[in-house]
């Protein structure tokens, strides 16, 4: 029977890999024209019990450890006036509980572990009915099981539920400083080796060290409208002027933080944050299921990629255990997935609530240091 996966993100590729390890063929259809057609974003922290468990099931844990950054677990938490609330530096012999990995490197690791024919690039999913997939270019393919791994705006999701993602009130601008150790050594020392987080009243600045020497900077604005980018006065078409406007929006913050914004290159990317309802479920339907953001889109606070990878691994194991009964495999997978991701979604929503609160920095400190 034919297993068809829509979306070559981390979850879809993890599913394809676990199936491959268990001697089951699957085809992944991806709308992008090639693996390098679009940037894959920054770093991910893979948790030992979820994302790393998926890599073990995929037979790739040693390869993952080879590209993971132990020091990426470092954390610095500050207030807008420059007060350092928390600094956690990772010892060289610390366990790899949540090491950071470049998302593109992880995706390439998964892609390289699959047969070349396993991923069909340039196939944008349009519709599915009676075992036949239709793509935007007019081509088609058959399926016995269709797995929607097509992300936040999943089109496969509409085959199972009417649920739609909704804006959270958070809008993010992504910036970046390339080769920071050479170009701005003082800022590099300030950010450190891992994650740097400044939380204020309704705003935050986070800086994240990437494996290629770039520091990605995310400016978040909470309790804002879905059309906030249009009304914010940020001229996204003029990067230099956009940086000036963003610095204005952080008036009153320590000058070291606005210096980070001033040092950024011309990458200025707006991102609206949306989520699906926490605890979303649907009646099991023969021939269809979802994983990753298509099934349980969460705020970007560290759970999404881990859940997607584990979704793919556990669905693959369920299908391997029931090779002649896809319906039973899907029910088994969905039952576990709904429970696990509902808990992760509740925790993510709690963190999102903290970040949008007036005293976010102190509440987050209590979250990291309970009791």
Automatic annotation (TrEMBL):
What do the Gene Ontology cellular component annotations say? cytoplasm
Entry text on domains:
Consists of an N-terminal FAD-binding domain with a Rossman fold and a C-terminal substrate-binding domain.
Q: Where does FAD bind?
A: 45, 103, 293
Self-association state and partner proteins as the record states: Monomer.
Q: Which UniProt keywords apply?
A: Cytoplasm, FAD, Flavoprotein, Monooxygenase, NADP, Nucleotide-binding, Oxidoreductase
Q: Which reaction does it catalyse?
A: a tetracycline + NADPH + O2 + H(+) = an 11a-hydroxytetracycline + NADP(+) + H2O
Q: Where in the cell is it found?
A: Cytoplasm
Q: Which organism is it from?
A: Streptomyces griseochromogenes
Q: What is its main location?
A: cytoplasm
Q: Which InterPro entries match?
A: FAD-bd, FAD/NAD-bd_sf, TetX_monooxygenase
**Named cofactor requirement(s):** FAD
Upper lineage: Bacteria, Bacillati, Actinomycetota, Actinomycetes, Kitasatosporales
Q: What is its EC number?
A: 1.14.13.-
What is stated as this protein's family in its record? Belongs to the aromatic-ring hydroxylase family. TetX subfamily.
Tell me which residues bind NADPH.
Answer: 38
Pfam families annotated for this entry? FAD_binding_3
All copies of the FAD-binding domain together span 3-225, 290-324
**Main EC class the enzyme belongs to:** oxidoreductase
Protein role: An FAD-requiring monooxygenase active on some tetracycline antibiotic derivatives, which leads to their inactivation. Hydroxylates carbon 11a of tetracycline and some analogs.
MF terms from GO for this chain are: FAD binding; monooxygenase activity
What is the protein name given in its UniProt record? Flavin-dependent monooxygenase
Query: Single Gene Ontology BP term?
Result: response to antibiotic
